């Protein structure tokens, strides 16, 4: 019985040494075959010991001989995920800023509309007051002697004189125009 057990033990040891030696040779030729693909946290700890250089295209490794390519790829993937998350956070901040700015712009537009309405109302009031003033002046000139009213209207700016004449009764306006010198009367007739 001793011979078969010794043969089994010898066969097992020979097989173990052969397999172990084969794996050792293969691990030297193809190191990535026997290394597991790492998870994010161990990769970061492992990569800290490596020298990295940033380039415009991304991360370039100065020494990758100590770890397998899967570690490098996993680290690059983790780096890209981190950059993506940072970009998404930055975009969210910009979106929030844009929303706040749009709200401010809309509030300012509403305020401008309100102020424009106030300006329009005030302009109408000013025009109404000017019309009332012109009508009052026209009544005063109507009650004056045509010669005296003509002398005063001749010395006024043409637009003002025309507005006053247009607001008079036709007969009185005609009497006053007949007393104004012909050049000035002609200019007043041509104004619109």
Automatic annotation (TrEMBL):
The chain crosses the membrane at residues 6-26. The keyword Transmembrane helix applies. The keyword Repeat does not apply. SUPFAM superfamilies: MgtE N-terminal domain-like. InterPro entries: Mg_transptr_MgtE_intracell_dom. Keywords: Coiled coil, Membrane, Transmembrane, Transmembrane helix. It holds the Pfam family MgtE_N. Residues 124-189 form the Magnesium transporter MgtE intracellular domain. Residues 77-139 form a coiled coil. Signal peptide: none annotated. This is MgtE intracellular N domain-containing protein.
């Amino acid at each position: 019985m001793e011979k078969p057990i010794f043969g089994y033990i010898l066969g097992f040891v020979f097989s173990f040494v052969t397999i172990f030696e084969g794996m050792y040779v293969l691990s030297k030729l193809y190191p990535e075959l026997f290394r597991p693909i790492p998870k994010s946290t161990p990769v970061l700890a492992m990569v800290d010991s490596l020298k990295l250089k940033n380039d415009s295209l991304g991360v370039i490794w100065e020494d990758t001989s100590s770890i397998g390519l899967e570690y490098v790829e996993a680290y690059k993937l983790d780096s890209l995920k981190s950059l993506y998350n940072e970009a998404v956070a930055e975009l969210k901040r910009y979106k929030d800023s844009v929303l706040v700015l749009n709200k401010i712009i809309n509030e300012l537009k509403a305020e401008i509309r309100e102020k424009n309405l106030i300006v329009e109302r005030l302009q109408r009031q000013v025009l109404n007051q000017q019309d009332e003033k012109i009508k009052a002046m026209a009544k005063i000139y109507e009650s004056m002697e045509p010669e005296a009213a003509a002398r005063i209207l001749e010395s006024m700016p043409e637009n003002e004189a025309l507005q006053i004449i247009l607001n008079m009764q036709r007969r009185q306006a005609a009497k006053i125009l007949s007393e104004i010198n012909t050049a000035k009367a002609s200019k007043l007739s041509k104004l619109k």
